[in-house]
Design goal:
Layout (H helix, E strand, L loop, with lengths): L6 E5 L4 H12 L3 E6 L2 H11 L3 E5 L8 H12 L4 E4 L14 H29 L2 E6 L12 H21 L4 E8 L5 H8 L2 H9 L9 H12 L10 E4 L8
Parallel strand pairs: 1-2, 1-4, 2-3, 4-5, 5-6, 6-7
Protein name: SDR family oxidoreductase
InterPro entries: NAD(P)-bd_dom_sf (IPR036291), Sc_DH/Rdtase_CS (IPR020904), SDR_fam (IPR002347)
Pfam family, one: adh_short_C2
Length: about 250
């Protein structure tokens, strides 16, 4: 039945969880377009991943240009079947030191850009009558983590938006789900945890499996939700966290 090659867009696809996801999709024969800010990095990754991988350099916080970005993708590759909203930024700062601009910058990239990109992609998916969107949230949306107030606000909003989108769009054939990664061994987390042994101990101490996850663990979950394996699943927040969110 699978006649045409599926098309996926993965934001933040040149590193970490986005790269692992792009790799998984391509292994499964899904043509994948990675979006990110660093053109050199994108080009190198696309070269490594082979002919099923293409890239579009774009700073998603510039939301005004997103309609044109999506239009250029559709023109070149056709309508996307899958959108993975993975790109995100984080600042660690004490609550009272976070400026309005700091807060706004993170909300703009982690939330407003996800909304704007999803809206444009959904327009093309509606015409097809099918599609799957996977958002990426965080343990910060499950419980309170200090020093990341804007990040927490953005990721909690992503989970609410996932449910609202799923309810509105599922009758039209578009499933919307969310993966909530626990503590995963990436460059971003290594930077945060290796410099802070007490925090690392706390993370591992409350993770029943007693270890960090791997980017591939998240990629597998995203792949499941993005594809027909999950054809009757919509509006869920899938925690992939070694039990962290229920651990003590």
């Amino acid at each position: 039945m699978e006649s045409k090659t599926k098309l996926a867009i993965v934001t933040g696809g040149a590193s970490g969880l986005g790269l692992a996801t792009a790799k998984k999709f391509i292994e499964q024969g899904i043509r994948t377009i990675i979006i990110g800010r660093d053109e050199q990095k994108l080009a190198a990754v696309a070269h490594d991943l082979g002919e099923l991988c293409s890239y579009k350099p774009y700073d998603l916080s510039q939301t005004a240009g997103i309609p044109a970005l999506v239009a250029s993708i559709v023109q070149e590759f056709g309508a996307p079947d899958i959108l993975v909203n993975n790109a995100g930024i984080n600042h660690k700062k004490p609550f009272i030191e976070v400026t309005d601009d700091d807060f706004q910058q993170i909300i703009q990239t982690n939330l407003v850009a996800v909304f704007a990109l999803s809206r444009e992609v959904v327009k093309t998916m509606l015409a097809e009558g099918s599609g799957s969107i996977v958002n990426v949230s965080s343990m910060a949306a499950q419980y309170g983590i200090p020093y990341v107030i804007a990040y927490t606000a953005s990721k909690t909003a992503i989970e609410g938006m996932t449910r609202a989108m799923a309810t509105e769009l599922s009758p039209q054939g578009i499933r919307v789900n969310c993966v909530a990664p626990g503590f995963i061994a990436t460059d971003m987390s290594a930077k945060a945890l290796d410099n802070d042994p007490a925090r690392k101990q706390k993370v591992l101490g409350r993770t029943p499996m007693g270890k960090l996850g791997e980017p591939a663990d998240i990629a597998e979950a995203i792949y499941y939700l993005a594809t027909d394996s999950a054809k009757y699943v919509t509006g869920v927040i899938l925690q992939v966290d070694g039990g962290n969110s229920i651990g003590f």
